Amino acid sequence: MRPGRGVPPRRSTQRRINSESRVPPRATLPSAVDTRPKRFVVGITGASGAAYALRTLELLLQSGAEVHLVVSEYGQRLLYEEAGIKKIEPEALLPELIEQDGSFAYKLTCHPNKDVGALIASGSYLHDGMVVVPCSSTSLGAIATGSGSNLLTRAAMVTLKERRRLIVCHRESPLSLVDIENMRTLTLAGAIICPTNPGFYLKPMTVGDIVDFTVGKILDLLGVEHSLATRWEG
């Protein structure tokens, strides 16, 4: 049959492929720049070692970070017995720091442990890591088994599931096999076990020096710069 008599002329196969393969240019989206300050979650439980917790809070705030604090019921008793702290609020926890600069009070948010609906209980709330210091064997076990019955353990669970850094500063001795297995479980889940075991090669002279040795390691693990004298220089 002659072209033009009922049958359209055949288009070039190559032209058809080229035409169909044309894709409109992808829209260029503006890059999302995270301009917020660093944000950390701190949990305090009932194992002895209030000084570790208070020093960690102090240095995180001084670094410019925003801090969310949750204290277990036994953690509140710990703070009272070891530091005379009666209320879980910035002015009571760090009076000297707040007196020096009142703006630090606005960077520290204290959450009730029973408030499992708080911001830090949700994985959608972004933060840069969580540290439980000091961490009791009871809280260690609750976190390892995925118990989210209170805000502290719930926040730790969320930190793990979101693949964020969770640092567990266990401070009880000796260890039972249960403790060791719980540490193993948390390590496999991505947490870092950072016991409050001080080193003495820097020849500490005060209790504060001993505390700073562990707190320096915590800050290193959180990626927070500090000037504590905690490094071996050979």
| CATH H-tier superfamily | Flavin prenyltransferase-like
CATH domain class: Alpha Beta
Total number of beta strands: 6
Q: How would you spell out the order of helices and strands? A: HEHEHHHEEHHEHEH
Cα end-to-end separation: 94 Å
Cα-based radius of gyration, to the nearest Å: 27 Å
Topology of helices and strands:
Blueprint: H1 13-20, E1 39-44, H2 50-62, E2 66-71, H3 73-83, H4 90-93, H5 95-100, E3 108-111, E4 130-135, H6 137-144, H7 151-161, E5 166-170, H8 177-189, E6 192-193, H9 207-222
Parallel strand pairs: 1-2, 1-4, 2-3, 4-5, 5-6
Explain briefly what this protein structure is.
With 234 residues, the protein is an alpha/beta fold. The protein has nine helices and six strands. It has one domain (39-222): Flavin prenyltransferase-like (Rossmann fold), CATH 3.40.50.
Describe what this molecule looks like in 3D:
The protein is α/β, with parallel strands linked by helices. It has one domain: Rossmann fold. Helix content is about 40%, strand content about 10%. The protein contains nine helices and six strands, in the order αβαβαααββααβαβα. Strands 3-2-1-4-5-6 form a six-stranded parallel sheet, with helices on both faces. Strand 5, helix 8 and strand 6 form a beta-alpha-beta unit. The radius of gyration is 27 Å and the shape is globular. Mean pLDDT is about 90; it is low at about 25-30.
